From TrEMBL:
UniProt protein name: ABC transporter A member 7
InterPro entries assigned: AAA+_ATPase, ABC2_TM, ABC_transporter-like_ATP-bd, ABC_transporter-like_CS, ABCA, P-loop_NTPase
A GO molecular-function descriptor: ATP binding
Transmembrane segments: 32-52, 326-352, 372-400, 412-433, 439-462, 520-538
Annotated keywords: ATP-binding, Membrane, Nucleotide-binding, Transmembrane, Transmembrane helix
Compartment(s) where it occurs, according to its Swiss-Prot or TrEMBL record: Membrane
Coiled-coil segments on the chain, per record: none
């Protein structure tokens, strides 16, 4: 047999690992479905990619010929071939060897101007060290009139100051100011009443364009700080007349003068529309630089001197077909869901063990916290690693650039760190859930909510250059956003191929300021370590049995006293009422416990010294003593039966002894170890058969016994033999019952398996809480035989409601009522002490009832009638007053005098003793 006290860390770890592998084998179908989830997502993205590729092959996405003047149908001679600048799609796809020349524009903020009236105002702020210099130069910014040459309209636009509200793109092949249906504004010092328009033909685009006049107003500010404050207060400001002036730009001439030109230009770098956001949009800054340079030149040379800004032109480019990498565009969102899919699996697995009390069941059979954490963590890490490997392999085989372009070593490090963080987070949150359904729903809400918030909020903020990087880092402290940011960086690196000339993410790219992968990795590593330690701490304080002291980690700095039964003194705290209630047998038990405490002996496996458990009152209810002043000593080789009505405190006593709750006061020792401080040592030599079966539904009976046998240090042939004997002795061996999953067992089969688990590995102390519940008579007799055999070399505490079972198994009995031990002794002693009467029953006709009473009075004047109904009477006869032979002779005489239909004489049963003691104790408690 094994030696539980010498079970090593690795023995426990080996037992748990084997159990987990067996459990995983049972759930192979669920594992396959789990691994297929990323494959399904990848296949879905492939199908979407195929559909988009088919669409992009259509003619409207290729460089070709279109009808001029936006006609839908036309002859071939009327078609214009080549890049169509009116077509937003063809411009970036066609080869352009000679890009179009577009007149330069100012970027104007969106305004609402009434047509045909000079109601538009655009403001330019300026300041300078030399006030008069600044005023003089700023007056040269805007012309007084719009000058146009009808014979050469496009060339005549350059000297004028034109601007547009249109949003820019990331290139100048197409100028939205001329191709979109938005007016162009001419900034002048004064405006005529009517607007003008012009027709143009430029870069394959023809159309009619409206030019609206807008007043350009220069406003002086005393310092650059005033300008800065005004700009950041908002884009709009009211003048004295209540009109809205739009700030176009601002200039600080600093120390400029006739001998030197030094200027600072403010411009708006945030371009947003109601629909899209272009993070790399071009800025219309050159026109502002040209204006201030021209103003200074005219200050020096006169108003006739100008530097004409004729056009803006893009660099030539080859044909660039549109390619959309769906995995890179949508991968950050979809792949976030793929990775987070593991979180509910891990969390529900941990909560399931907690809800079914399997974790505490394993602890009560000797499994330490160290092996549990190491094996469980490693088990989930292995499962996550396999899952992520399949995810990357599937994506790579299907050809997603998201996987193939980015360095696999960076991907491995990123996924490895995050899976560890995810497992640690699951351990942490498992401490706060007690129901699997609640944990599952919460986890999946978190999974899909995280993906949606990250895809539609967090990504928008990451792309916004004006949003604080510090706030981005704060948001990345949430693990889901950190995961999304890393996947987003992978997607950006993969989708940028062809646009920026990169080849995916490499380690050298992590040092770049725009790449957020480095900060994400640092955040996740720090959180991994912190969350893991916090999870372990909370688990120790809240989740393992009765929990540990919040400062348990400081015990290593304290000198630990050796556990001992011997105590210097014993202090009693009992009321006079309870002292008067104590029976001689209870007093003798207390004296025996006191002697054991002074002269400890290893023969007594269990010693309880003045053990108390008090539950404080809640919601206006008074507190209650579930156990009070309990003294008990149980030696090895004895089965002690605890009897008591429901609510008497038996379960509270068992809960304290197995470590589920801590005693309010007093102490109890198991094999010399104090249950208050050394439960981990007690667990190695303890077996428990709980009132409710705590089993894994997917494991067989044999696998349960193998697991718990390994926890008790059984190995090899010894383990196999012990398991086989347990199965045979409890009738779980025949008919392949041993290899059937426990979830398919009947209630009686589960009880027998629970008893077998409690006895496997030869524990020194066994607690059995109503072990025969739900068993048929044959199985009950078999179970009794096993328990009788098992109690020879161990101490057993048995609770039951069956008087027959208590009498058959218990060497001593204790009747427990209202939290106190009312009496102790073997069944015969209790029946002799509390049931010293015979019960005499006789049934006659109603005419002879008086004759029966007279007969009984002749037997003993101390007889007590306890029942009378229609000729049937029952009497209690004190045993010391009558003899059985006298009763028989009296009945024979009576039969000759009148008709006796039936009669009987019965001894006191254990049930009678139980009822009598319980009623007396409850009556006394009510009176007190």
């Amino acid at each position: 047999m094994g030696n539980p006290s010498s079970v090593s860390f690795w023995t426990q770890a080996n037992a748990l690992l084997r159990k987990n592998l067996t459990f995983q084998k049972r759930n192979v179908k669920s594992n396959i479905r789990l691994i297929l989830f990323p494959l399904i997502i990848c296949v879905l993205l492939v199908l979407v990619q195929i559909i988009i590729d088919i669409e992009l092959r259509k003619s409207e996405f290729k460089c070709g010929c279109v009808c001029a003047n936006n006609k839908t149908r036309c002859e071939d001679s009327e078609k214009v071939c080549g890049p169509q600048y009116s077509d937003q799609i063809q411009v970036p796809t066609c080869p352009i060897s000679n890009p179009a020349e577009w007149p330069p524009l100012l970027q104007l903020p969106a305004v609402s101007c009434k047509q045909n009236r000079s109601s538009c105002h655009f403001t330019t702020l300026f300041t300078a060290d030399n006030h008069s210099f600044g005023h003089t130069v700023s007056k040269n910014m805007f012309p007084s009139t719009l000058v146009m040459n009808d014979s050469n309209i496009m060339d005549s636009l350059a000297p004028n100051v034109l601007g547009s509200e249109s949003m820019t793109t990331d290139n100048n092949f197409n100028e939205p100011g001329f191709t979109l249906a938005l007016p162009i504004y001419s900034l002048q010092t004064r405006c005529p009443r009517n607007n003008s328009g012009f027709s143009f033909a430029m870069a394959g685009t023809t159309g009619q364009q409206e030019i609206r006049c807008a007043r350009g107003i220069n406003l002086w500010r005393n310092s650059s700080s005033e300008i800065n404050n005004e700009l950041y207060k908002g884009y709009r400001r009211h003048n004295r007349k209540g009109r809205i002036n739009e700030i176009v730009s601002a200039f600080d001439f600093l120390n400029s003068n006739e001998d030197g030109f030094n200027v600072t230009v403010w411009y708006n770098s945030t371009y947003k529309s109601n629909i899209t956001f272009v993070p790399n949009a071009l800025l219309r800054i050159p026109r502002s630089i040209n204006l201030v340079s021209n103003a200074y030149l005219q200050f020096l040379k006169g108003p006739g001197t100008k530097m004409i800004f004729e056009f803006v032109k893009e660099m030539p480019k080859p044909e660039t077909p549109i390619r959309l990498e769906i995995a890179s565009l949508l991968g950050a969102l979809f792949f976030t869901w793929v990775v987070l899919q593991l979180f509910p699996v891990i969390l529900t697995s941990l909560v399931y063990e907690k809800q079914q009390k399997l974790r505490i069941m394993m602890r009560m059979h000797g499994l330490g916290d160290g092996p549990y954490w190491i094996i469980s963590y490693g088990y989930f890490l292995a499962l996550s690693t396999i899952y992520m490997l399949c995810f990357v392999i599937f994506g790579s085989v299907l050809g997603f650039k998201f996987f193939t372009l980015n360095d696999y070593s960076i991907q491995f490090v990123f996924y490895f760190i995050y899976t560890n963080l995810q497992i640690s987070l699951a351990f942490l949150l498992a401490s706060f859930f007690s129901n699997v359904k609640t944990a599952t729903v919460t986890a999946y809400i978190g999974v899909f909510g995280t993906g949606l918030l990250a895809g539609f909020l967090f990504q928008f903020l990451v792309q916004d250059p004006s949003f604080s990087r510090g706030w981005i880092i704060c948001m990345e402290l949430y693990p889901g956003f950190a995961l999304y940011r890393g996947l987003y960086e992978f997607a950006q690196s993969a989708s940028s191929i062809g646009n920026y000339g990169t080849d995916g993410m490499r380690w050298k790219d992590l040092s770049g300021g725009a790449n957020g992968m480095k900060e994400v990795l640092i955040i996740m590593v720090v959180e991994w370590i912190v969350v893991l330690f916090v999870a372990y701490y909370i688990d120790q304080v809240l989740s393992t049995g009765s929990g540990k002291n919040p400062l348990f980690f400081l015990r290593g700095f304290q000198k630990k006293p050796l556990p001992s039964l011997k105590k210097p003194s014993i202090k009693r705290q009992g009321s006079k009422v309870f002292a008067q209630m104590e029976k001689p047998d209870v007093i003798r038990e207390r004296e025996k416990v006191e002697q054991l405490l002074l002269e400890p002996t290893i023969n007594h496996a269990i010693v309880c010294d003045n053990l108390k458990k008090f539950y404080p009152g809640r919601d206006g209810n008074l507190g209650k003593f579930a156990v009070r002043e309990l003294f008990l000593g149980v030696p090895r080789g004895e089965c002690f039966g605890m009897l008591g009505p429901n609510g008497a405190g038996k379960s509270s006593f068992i809960s304290m002894m197995i470590g589920l709750t801590k005693p309010t006061s007093g102490a109890a020792y198991v094999q010399g170890l104090d249950i208050r401080n050394h439960m981990d040592g007690i667990y190695t030599s303890m077996g428990v058969c709980p009132q409710h079966d705590l089993l894994w539904e997917s494991l067989t009976g044999r696998e349960h016994l193998l697991f718990y046998g390994r926890l008790k240090n059984l190995t090899g042939s010894v383990l196999t033999q012990a398991v086989e004997e347990s199965l045979k002795s409890l009738n779980l061996y025949h008919g392949r019952i041993a290899d059937k999953q426990a979830g398919k067992y009947s209630g009686g089969m589960k009880r027998r398996l629970s008893v077998a688990i409690s006895l496997i590995g030869d524990p020194s102390v066994v607690y059995m809480d109503e072990p025969s519940t739900g068993l048929d008579p044959a199985s009950r007799r078999c179970l009794w035989k096993v328990i009788k055999h098992a109690k020879r070399d161990r101490a057993i505490i048995l609770t039951t409601h069956s008087m027959e079972e208590a009498e058959a198994l218990s060497d001593r009995l204790g009747i427990f009522v209202n939290g106190t031990m009312q009496c102790l002794g073997n069944p015969k002693e209790l029946k002799g002490r509390y049931g010293g009467t015979y019960v005499f029953t006789m049934t006659t006709s109603s005419d002879h009832e008086k004759d029966v009473e007279n007969m009984v009075q002749q037997l003993t004047p101390n007889a007590n009638k306890i029942y009378h109904l229609s000729g049937t009477q029952k009497f209690e006869l004190p045993k010391e007053d009558v003899k059985i032979a006298s009763v028989f002779r009296a009945v024979e005489v009576a039969k000759r005098n009148f008709t006796v239909f039936a009669w009987g004489l019965a001894d006191t049963t254990l049930e009678d003793v139980f009822i009598k003691v319980a009623r007396e104790a409850e009556g006394f408690d009510t009176l007190s």
